[in-house]
Write a structure and sequence with these properties.
Helix content of chain B: 25-40%
Number of helices of chain B: 16
Largest sheet of chain A: 6 strands, mixed
Radius of gyration of chain B: 31 Å
Largest sheet of chain B: 6 strands, mixed
Number of strands of chain A: 8
Strand order of the largest sheet of chain B: 2-3-1-4-5-6
Number of helices of chain A: 7
Strand order of the largest sheet of chain A: 3-2-1-4-6-5
Order of helices and strands of chain A: HEHEHEHEEEHEEHH
Shape of chain A: globular
Structural class of chain B: alpha/beta
Helix content of chain A: 25-40%
Oligomer: heterodimer
Largest interface: A-B, 58 and 61 residues
Shape of chain B: elongated
Number of strands of chain B: 25
Radius of gyration of chain A: 17 Å
Structural class of chain A: alpha/beta
Strand content of chain B: 25-35%
């Protein structure tokens, strides 16, 4: 077993635990490279078809390439796709800085989708290496009744035993690729030949390392025009992955405040 | 030695050529874990561009001197409090290893986070403040590393600058901690004097520690070995689920140890059912040929349809795990309420879960104290050995034989409250696996309860000989039957004439007698009947076993007629014979009857009539949800 085999086996284990122990789950499909890998892993875990819905909480501000990707692969992968809208920006905490406020819309959209379907588990493609607060996450991460994350009172989690009993009315976040890195994602995408959105590849000296809403995501300087070149670039770069995500950098704790409120 | 990250060529990211090891840094609060991590990241050139400058600027803005630990304490809340509250994972590289660094909090309050972090580690660095020396949390973390199965431990004596780089001070601490760890069976891979703040001993030998000739921290990390899958051990495939998404019936799980291939003869434990692996399923290509080894998440189909559940273990017939209802474990406890004898728990061994009762506690100590006195209960953040009895049989191994399947976690109210290693397994009687296929009833429980107007139950009458158990049992039987119910009397003496005729009156035989009574009664209760058991059943533990078997269907009634009244009645003449010494092992004239402490009902037949006593039982069965009230109403309307 090589490194990618180990990561894959661990993720499949987590998927199967989530499906066995929770009543009603969905996978949050952001259309990015990480959630596409997640869907691939879920299909491996369940032998071809993902047996729960793929939920796209749609800000309406994604790139056109992303919507095309969603509509095409939603069908090709035989997904039970649920697209849920986000509330207008006026409905969101006006004290947040602009980009964070825009991202917080997505949190509100997520809460509405949760209320609509009554999911007790949401599968999310966050990774520990992305960002310091995400590094503190559990694989099965309990959320409060308001969808909030209590970082001070996380339950113990060890030996692949997960806390899978959310209180009545609350839900769990499940993080099957928490232990992967950005480079792992690309190496696996290449090995398994998983489709990607072309925005990740260099055009005119720039590419997107991370895809969010059009208005709050910026490309990075890069000449990497295929996955091999991306991997070489990642070996050498010291620029963090989410550098192009405006909301991470507005204030020191903007991202943490978002996560405590239930953002991914 | 210079540990600046150099681009590897060719581009083979993530350890296809370089081993990846996961390291945890543990130790007493404020002994410098986060500082060491910050320094390690700096020394190995692993910091993102601008991160150090950003944090220095933040420190300046806040009017605080820069600390290396700020690198890790990225959360606002942590900076405010100045302590690390959770596990953070950081990656960097040494010459020949990719290191995943898991920082774990030293504050006792957050032991659950230290355990969460350390449980994922291949190796550990235990850090000790040279000025403060070995402290309670140092010892506690050392002990937990041993319990968590982390065998590679390097000791770092930090803040050597505070003791003028004294070789004597270093040796004293080194000797103390080495002795402590050796006592736990852990041999440190290195003991290293450092100053994380100034950098001595982290990546370089400096003149100030010129007397030290061992490895630096980076060199010690470079020598750690990654975890190896346990392919050499016997096959253990715990079943996570059975999928029937199409016409395949796939048994899915992760191979924890050993390996398997299509065609293997396997046994499903604990039931002992035998089958052959037909195919190994996968996606997108299926089936897959070739042997699948430990660490793989797989799906298999079998050559016959067997009843298999989540939590069963697939093994080879020649090397099956042990089936048991009882085991001993060494555990750590994280719950606020201490764990005590008699506590009811939920135990998980892999995907298997079972309700369990603590039947004994030994060696309960605080692993942080030097000379711990033993307690009766295991307090929060303490450790101990427990015997537990399980309501469902499980298949498991002692951890010395299989470190993956030989461990368990304990849940209280849906939250993990402790965990530990299986020390020994009280193996079941079955020597050779057999092909047992339980047949389920054609009727549903609600069909029966609709007819009988009651749920199934085990009504267990315990008390001294001649206390009135059988008389009361018969009165209750008649009453329930008259109301349209389905009571069945199981008298202890009557069953001894047949089913239990091979049993005498030794403690072991009495236990077995009670176990069989409970199993038969439970089978009846599961099929909707009310089994009325009348048995002296003097041992509290035996009755606890019966309650465990019958679970929620169990209703205990203590027929508490005073001993002198019982002896006066003596309808079978047993008391008389016993007084004459002609009846050994007779319960009643000694003090060998252990009265129930929490029976559902206590009845003294010397102060009420049989009809009154039967009324009380009927009332208890109503209020506890066995008898339906409607039955009475229906009868009135006829």
């Amino acid at each position: 077993m090589d490194h990618l085999d180990q990561l894959e086996a661990q993720s499949i284990y987590i998927f199967r635990e989530a499906f066995a122990r929770l009543k009603k789950i969905a996978l949050l499909w952001s259309l990015g490279k990480d959630s596409n890998v997640m869907i691939w892993l879920a299909r491996k875990a369940f032998f071809g078809k993902m047996p729960f819905p793929a939920l796209h909480v749609d800000t309406g501000k994604k790139f056109p390439e992303m919507y095309r990707f969603r509509d095409h692969y939603g069908k090709e992968w035989d997904l039970d796709l649920r697209v849920e809208p986000c509330p207008p920006i006026d409905a969101v905490d006006p004290t947040l800085p602009p980009a964070a406020r825009s991202a917080a819309r997505k949190t509100e959209g997520l809460k509405m989708a949760l209320a609509k379907y009554g999911f007790d588990g949401l599968i999310a493609g966050i990774r520990r290496d992305e960002e310091a607060t995400r590094a503190k996450e559990r694989v099965f991460s309990p959320r409060g009744l308001e969808g909030n994350w209590d970082v001070r009172d996380q339950p113990p989690e060890f030996w692949d035993h997960f806390n899978a009993s959310p209180p009545q009315g609350a839900h769990l976040r499940i993080h099957p690729i928490l232990h992967w890195t950005e480079a792992d994602i690309w190496a696996y995408t290449k090995r398994e030949n998983i489709p990607i959105i072309p925005l990740y590849l260099s055009q005119n000296g720039k590419r997107y390392r991370s895809l969010g809403d059009q208005d709050i995501t910026n490309p990075v300087n890069s000449t990497a025009s295929n996955i091999d070149e991306i991997l070489i670039e990642l070996e050498q770069t010291k620029v963090p992955e989410r550098a192009g995500r405006a909301l991470d950098h507005e204030t020191e704790d903007a991202f943490e405040r978002l996560r405590v409120a239930g953002y991914l | 030695m210079n540990m600046i990250v150099t681009p590897t060529s060719p581009a083979t990211p993530n350890g296809t050529t370089r081993p990846q090891v996961r390291i945890v840094i543990v130790g007493h609060v404020d002994h410098g874990k986060s500082t060491l991590v910050g320094r390690l990241l700096h020394e190995t050139g692993s910091l993102p561009d601008g991160k150090l400058e950003m944090l220095k600027a933040v420190s300046a803005r806040r009017g605080m001197p820069f600390e290396w630990s700020f690198l890790l304490d990225a959360l606002q809340t942590e900076r405010d409090q100045g302590i690390t509250i959770d596990t953070t994972q950081i990656r960097f590289r040494t010459n020949s290893r990719d290191i995943v660094l898991i920082d774990a909090p030293g504050h006792a309050e957050f032991l659950r986070n230290m355990i969460t972090g350390a449980s994922q580690a291949d190796g550990a660095v235990l850090i000790i403040d040279a000025l403060e020396g070995v402290r309670d949390q140092t010892r506690r973390h050392g002990y937990l590393l041993h319990l968590l199965g982390v065998k590679q431990v390097a000791i770092v004596v930090n803040k050597m600058d505070r003791v003028d780089f004294s070789a004597d001070r270093f040796k004293a601490i080194s000797d103390e901690i080495s002795a402590h760890l050796n006592g736990l069976g852990v041999k440190p891979t290195a003991v290293i004097p450092i100053s994380a703040r100034d950098g001595d001993g982290v990546a370089e030998h400096t003149d100030r520690i010129g007397w030290y000739k061992g490895p630096t921290v980076v060199e010690a990390l470079d020598q750690l070995e990654p975890a190896r899958p346990l392919e050499a051990l016997a096959l253990r495939l715990p079943v996570q689920a059975i999928y029937k998404f199409d016409d395949r019936r796939i048994v899915a799980g992760r191979i924890e140890s050993g390996s398997l291939v299509a065609g293997d003869e396997i046994v499903i434990m604990p039931a002992g059912k035998i089958a052959r692996i037909k195919t190994v399923e996968s996606w997108p290509v299926t089936p897959v040929a070739g042997r699948q080894g430990a660490g793989r998440s797989v799906g298999i189909t079998l050559d016959r349809e067997l009843f298999i559940e989540r939590g069963d273990i697939v093994a080879h017939t020649s090397s099956a795990p042990r089936e048991t209802r009882r085991l001993r474990a060494r555990i750590f406890w994280l719950h606020d309420k201490p764990l005590a004898k008699g506590d009811q728990l939920l135990v998980r061994c892999g995907p298997k879960e079972s309700r369990a009762t603590v039947v004994a506690i030994e060696k309960a100590v605080d692993p942080g104290e030097l000379s711990s006195s033993e307690n009766k209960a295991i307090g929060r953040n303490h450790v101990g050995e427990i015997d537990i009895s399980l309501s469902n049989p499980i298949a498991t191994d002692p951890y010395t034989e299989n470190p993956r399947t030989g461990r368990l976690v304990i849940e209280v109210a849906g939250r993990i409250a402790g965990g530990g290693l299986v020390l020994s397994v009280d193996a079941g009687q079955r020597a050779v696996p057999v092909d047992i296929v339980p047949v389920e009833s054609a009727l549903r429980p609600d069909e029966r309860s609709a007819r009988y107007q009651h749920n199934g139950a085990v009504v267990w009458l315990t008390g001294l000989p001649a206390s009135g158990k059988s008389t009361l049992a018969k009165a209750l039987e008649r009453r329930l039957f008259t109301n349209g119910g389905s009571p069945i009397l199981l008298d202890g003496d009557t069953l001894r004439a047949g089913l239990n005729s091979d049993l005498g009156f030794s403690a072991a035989d009495r236990s077995e007698n009670i176990r069989r009574l409970a199993e038969v009664a439970t089978h009846l209760a599961r099929n909707g009947h009310i089994a009325i058991v009348a048995a002296v059943s003097p041992a509290r533990e035996d009755r606890a076993t019966a309650r465990r078997i019958a679970d929620t269907a169990f209703r205990e009634i203590h027929v508490a007629t005073p001993a002198d009244v019982c002896e006066g009645r003596d309808p079978k003449g047993h008391y008389k014979k016993a007084r004459a010494g002609a009846l050994a092992s007779f319960t009643g004239i000694g003090n060998d009857y252990e009265a129930p402490q929490a029976a559902e009902l206590v009845i003294d037949t010397s102060t009420r009539t049989i009809a009154e006593a039967a009324d009380e039982i009927e009332q208890m069965l109503k209020t506890s949800g066995v008898l339906f009230d409607e039955a009475v109403d229906l009868a009135a309307n006829i």
